[in-house]
Write a structure and sequence with these properties.
Layout: H1 7-10, H2 12-37, H3 54-60, H4 62-94, H5 99-124, H6 135-151, H7 153-170, H8 175-192, H9 207-214, H10 217-230
Amino acid sequence: MTRSRTPSQTAPGPVLWPVAGAAAGLFSVLLGIAGGLLETALSGPWPATGDPAYGPFLARNRGPVLAQSMFFVLGQAALVCFLGWVWARLLRAEGAPGTVSAVAFGAGFMAAALNIAGQGVQLVLTMPAAASMDAATASAVTDLCVVLLALANLPLAVSFAAVAALSLARGAYPRWLGGIAAGAAVAALLSVLSLVPTAGPLSPMGGLTTALRLVPLLWYLPAAVVMLRSRS
């Protein structure tokens, strides 16, 4: 004779899964902030392209650069988990066949993959072989990292646009979150344009470009909280 399971014994599974998804989103935000704060641990600003000081700069700052990249990589991994729950929520609001929901997840996944690839390039600068790089080679590797991170914003813009559409039209998320998602899509598109100017606030290392990188956090954090409170 087998014992029947009471509802309280079977309920934790369905409840805990959405909590885990929201926690992944919050963890991703925390790791991203931690990675960004490690810029303050560097001995100074990154040298200009071709500067002979590039090699000594990398040697002095191997620890912070390595830690920063690892925080960002782990943050993107957590973000992919979070996006799975976002996809499920969008799909419930959209219904079959779920095309827009699939676009939101697929584009978000591609953005995360490009971000991880960009951090992989930065990790090359922390490897032992980087000590023998000349300034021009080190600068080229850095430029490749910058390009990959900037291009990651293009699929990110598509993902946020899809989230905004389903939030504003189908109520997948509250309308105010849909508005933030639309703003994040515009910010991501502007971030792609940072590859064009070589100087100024919208250049790859400019102040505006840095600020635009923070805009997605304005959606991830409240979206995770909303999901945590609604358990879905």
